[in-house]
């Protein structure tokens, strides 16, 4: 009996290690195949609008075809958070990801194995309150007032910390007031009075600003503007080193998409409004309010702030540790 | 004598199994089978072990991991207590009143299907952003499966016990406590097992989605570790979750089972 | 205290949703004296179990059932039922606690007193020393003895026995019959005992009844055979024949 159990365990062990072995074999044969596959992860929202254009107009495929005469298969995966995308790239299942600047900095520092290959967009962020008596941080710090935002360590959290820091408060002075919930839930909680404040980004800030009974705390708005990097694209180092042609096509495709959005905003809005669930009119307003550019702004400054306030443990030596050579900005 | 031998055998195969799983884990981690960054997403046992210690000694953002565990356990225990008590009271009332039984049966069937997280917006409107929201989700997780088991258990009580009880002069409520409750014990014990597991998972997922900084729990800790790519710490937290689960299983539920249905010869 | 411990007048029992002509018991009249051991014989479906359940208070009926001249509609400890099913003991209580529990419910709180009562009852059914066993550790015959001990301990007006030995093997059955006979002689108790075994009725009963469809009493007579009864006893053969032909007259 015991012997049989032991044999079973051995067999299981061999099966599992065997199947893992097979998995790696398959990957090797895949790269050797004729057509190249590019796995891209992105998230939902207005800030990702250029990606819908690149996807619908097949801009990456076109750029690759023009440069090499060969085909590339682009697989677009919609994912839920920067953390998921980080894991996906670290495991080699994803080549490219688009995420907030904060998880991207965390990923570079944690050595996930990628760098920023392009900036994608900048948006306004702000803190809205439903209590007219709240006019500055003093009214919230050490109070019972709760602040909804999307996650601890998210870009919204770091912007809040930065606003506090710049106005002479401890960056973590409001940490004990935070409540973590998704953007739409946060907006609902703010409107129903369940929380006092909501730190959010577009398009929710536009909707919240339209309400007469909601007020904006300007310090947060000014801490990180739409000229600063919000969403960036990251590419794995192995893609950059081993598949430079695909990498170049990727950079070109995204750059083309951003150019298209900026020069033909109305056509772009017609293309993206359906995906974002907005009316054409609203989508156009939102796209015009955003800042879509491939040039980064404030990445190293933000990383230095994150190090100073304990959001990351180490700070790489220079801007070039965060981005590939082709990226402009700071 | 034979029983003791069986127990030793059971422990022996389990230890072999655990060692085998750990060996496979370590092999995969050391061989870096998940590519170049394998250790970042699939850390070695040593890395997880030191992260385990770091969780307790350093914690995160100035808060000890003990505080996270204490917060979670507090909400869990309150939720479990309310859920279990309510399931007994409501199932008991169902046995006393036919009309109540029909309504409650429907309510259990409906609410057992609803994932607690889907109810979150409604619960927030009712309770506001408070710890009570998570307690409510734990109650929701445990109440319906527990009630289903208790109800089924009550309905499955052999008629002869009820008649013997009535013969002794027991009436509705003393019959409930004196006959229905002990006679349904095997259903109640399995209800406790299911209810406990659902509550524990419900708590963690609620905390992962809905985090209150004033009462940070284990689920929130996992979420923070994931956001920061501290995967070794995250796996170490999963180990803690497993340990707590096993302690409850073997420290509380199994003794309850041994002291009741096993002792009474009511298991098949 | 009247000598007539049980009086049944005009008892009719119809199960729910059944027409009147399907009455299980129709207009039954019956009187039982104190200390009688009444054995009721009858084919399946003659209403003998229903009669017992009506007396116990488990069924809704028309007519009246009086114990010591008092009308009874609900179950009570003055009429204790011993079922055929071995699983009538609570499995979550030890033998001793099974006997003590109804006594406790009767208001006896003193632990020493309870212990004494349960020990006495167990001694009567020859199960001294089995107090700490759980029911699942006992054989079928032992469980039935405990059920009888439980009934005796309560000192009810009437013990109602619904074929308590029917599921036992022949040897155990004979043994339990003679034990029950001794108990019924030594104890001050009235027993109504249902069986479809003629031998059992003759051995145990001081009075024997045969019921036909609708609870019609076709034979009701004192058992005059000298106890202890054996097949060789005088009059055994004639009585057996009479009961047998009454039982099987329709077959």
What structural class results from the helix and strand content of chain B?
mainly alpha
- Count of DSSP helices of chain B? 12
> At the third CATH level, what is the topology name of the largest domain in chain A?
D-Maltodextrin-Binding Protein, domain 2
Q: Strand content of the residues of chain B, in percent?
A: under 5%
**% residues in beta strands of chain A:** 15-25%
Amount of helix of chain B: over 70%
DSSP E strands of chain B, number = 1
Number of domains of chain A: 2
Q: Write the CATH architecture name of the largest domain in chain A.
A: 3-Layer(aba) Sandwich
How would you sum up this structure, described in words?
- The complex is a heterotrimer of chains A (330), B (268) and C (251).
- Chain A folds into 2 domains: 36-123 and 228-321, D-Maltodextrin-Binding Protein, domain 2 (3-Layer(aba) Sandwich), CATH 3.40.190.10; 125-223, 3-Layer(aba) Sandwich (D-Maltodextrin-Binding Protein, domain 2), CATH 3.40.190.10.
- In chain A, 48% of the residues lie in helices and 16% in strands.
- Chain A contains 14 helices and 10 strands.
- A 5-stranded mixed β-sheet of chain A has the order 2-1-3-10-4, with helices on both faces. Chain A has a 5-stranded mixed β-sheet with strand order 7-6-8-5-9, with helices on both faces.
- With 268 residues, chain B is an all-alpha fold.
- Chain B folds into 2 domains: 1-42, no CATH class; 47-262, MetI-like (MetI-like fold), CATH 1.10.3720.
- Chain B has helices at 2-30, 38-41, 45-57, 65-96, 98-111, 120-127, 131-155, 159-167, 172-183, 185-209, 218-227, 231-262; one strand at residues 211-212.
- The mean pLDDT of chain B is 88.
- Chain C has 251 residues and is of the alpha/beta class.
- Chain C has 2 domains: 1-78 and 158-251, P-loop containing nucleotide triphosphate hydrolases (Rossmann fold, 3-Layer(aba) Sandwich), CATH 3.40.50; 87-155, no CATH class.
- Chain C has 7 helices and 10 strands.
- The N and C termini of chain C lie far apart (43 Å).
- The interface between A and B is large, with 49 and 37 residues.
- Strand 7 of chain A pairs antiparallel with strand 1 of chain B.
């Amino acid at each position: 009996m015991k012997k049989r159990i032991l044999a079973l365990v051995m067999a299981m062990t061999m099966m599992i290690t065997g199947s893992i072995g097979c998995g790696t074999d398959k990957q090797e044969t895949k790269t050797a195949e004729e057509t190249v596959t590019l796995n891209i992860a992105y998230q939902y929202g207005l800030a990702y609008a250029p990606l819908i254009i690149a996807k619908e107009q097949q801009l990456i495929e076109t750029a690759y075809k023009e440069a090499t005469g060969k085909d590339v298969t682009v697989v677009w995966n919609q994912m839920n958070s920067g953390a998921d995308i980080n894991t996906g790239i670290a495991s080699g299942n994803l080549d490219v990801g688009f995420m907030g600047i904060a998880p991207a900095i965390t990923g570079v520092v944690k050595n996930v194995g990628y760098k920023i290959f392009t900036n994608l967009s900048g948006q306004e962020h702000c803190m809205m309150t439903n209590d007219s008596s709240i006019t500055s941080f003093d009214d919230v710090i050490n109070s019972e007032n709760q602040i909804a935002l999307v996650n601890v360590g998210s870009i919204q959290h770091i912007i809040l910390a930065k606003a506090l820091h710049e106005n002479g408060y401890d960056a973590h002075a409001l940490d004990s007031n935070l409540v973590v919930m998704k953007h739409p839930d946060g907006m609902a909680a703010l409107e129903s009075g369940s929380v006092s404040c909501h730190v959010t980004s577009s398009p929710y800030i536009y909707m919240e600003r339209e309400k007469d009974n909601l007020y904006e705390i300007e310090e947060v708005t000014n801490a990180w503007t739409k000229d600063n990097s919000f969403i960036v694209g990251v590419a794995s180092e192995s893609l950059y080193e081993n598949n430079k042609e695909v990498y170049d096509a990727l950079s070109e495709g995204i750059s083309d998409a951003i150019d298209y959005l900026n020069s033909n905003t109305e056509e772009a809005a017609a293309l993206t409004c359906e995906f974002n669930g907005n009316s054409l009119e609203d989508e156009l307003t939102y796209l015009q309010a955003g800042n879509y550019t491939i040039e980064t702004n404030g990445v190293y400054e933000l990383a230095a702030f994150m190090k100073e306030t304990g959001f990351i443990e180490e700070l790489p030596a220079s801007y070039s540790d965060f981005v590939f050579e082709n990226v402009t900005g700071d | 004598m034979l029983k003791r031998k069986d127990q030793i055998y059971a422990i022996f195969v389990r230890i072999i199994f655990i060692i085998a799983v750990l060996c496979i884990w370590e092999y995969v981690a050391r061989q870096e089978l998940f590519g170049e960054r394998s250790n970042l997403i699939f850390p070695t046992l040593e890395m997880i072990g030191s992260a385990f210690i770091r969780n307790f000694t350093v914690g995160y953002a100035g808060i000890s991991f003990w505080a996270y565990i204490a917060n979670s356990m507090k909400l869990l225990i309150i939720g479990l207590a309310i859920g279990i008590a309510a399931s007994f009271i409501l199932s008991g009332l169902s046995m006393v009143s036919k009309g109540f039984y029909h309504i409650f049966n429907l309510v259990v069937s409906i609410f057992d299907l609803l994932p607690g997280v889907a109810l979150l917006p409604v619960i927030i409107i009712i309770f506001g952003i408070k710890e009570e929201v998570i307690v409510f989700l734990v109650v929701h997780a445990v109440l319906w499966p527990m009630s289903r088991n208790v109800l089924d258990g009550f309905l499955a009580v052999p008629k002869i016990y009820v008649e013997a009880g009535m013969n002794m002069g027991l009436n509705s409520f003393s019959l409930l406590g004196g006959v229905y409750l002990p006679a349904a014990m095997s259903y109640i014990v399995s209800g406790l097992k299911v209810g406990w597991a659902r509550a524990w998972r419900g708590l963690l997922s609620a905390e992962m989605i809905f985090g209150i900084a004033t009462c940070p729990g284990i689920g929130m800790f996992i979420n923070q570790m994931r956001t920061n790519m501290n995967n070794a710490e995250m796996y170490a937290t999963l180990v803690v979750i497993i340990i707590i689960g096993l302690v409850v299983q073997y420290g509380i539920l199994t003794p309850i089972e041994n002291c009741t249905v096993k002792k009474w010869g009511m298991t098949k | 205290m009247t000598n007539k411990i049980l009086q049944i007048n005009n008892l009719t029992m119809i199960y729910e949703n059944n027409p009147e002509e399907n009455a299980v018991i129709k207009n039954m009249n019956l009187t039982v004296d104190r200390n009688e051991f009444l054995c009721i014989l009858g084919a399946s479906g003659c209403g003998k179990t229903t009669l017992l359940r009506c007396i116990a208070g488990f069924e809704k009926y028309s007519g009246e059932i009086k114990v010591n001249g008092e009308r009874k509609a609900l179950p009570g400890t003055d009429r204790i039922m011993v079922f055929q099913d071995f699983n009538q003991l609570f499995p979550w209580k030890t033998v001793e606690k099974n006997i003590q529990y109804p006594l406790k419910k009767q208001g006896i709180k003193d632990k020493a007193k309870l212990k004494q009562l349960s020990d006495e009852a167990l001694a009567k059914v020859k199960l001294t020393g089995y107090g700490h066993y759980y029911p699942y550790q006992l054989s079928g015959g032992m469980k039935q003895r405990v059920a009888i001990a439980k009934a005796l301990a309560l000192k009810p007006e009437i013990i109602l026995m619904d074929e308590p030995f029917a599921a036992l093997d022949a040897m155990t059955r004979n043994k339990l019959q003679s034990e029950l006979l001794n108990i019924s002689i030594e104890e001050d108790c009235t027993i109504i005992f249902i069986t479809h075994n003629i031998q059992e009725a003759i051995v145990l009963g001081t009075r024997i009844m045969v019921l036909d469809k609708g609870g019609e009493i076709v034979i009701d007579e004192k058992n005059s055979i000298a106890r202890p009864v054996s097949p060789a006893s005088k009059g055994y053969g004639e009585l057996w024949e009479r009961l047998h032909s009454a039982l099987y007259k329709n077959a």
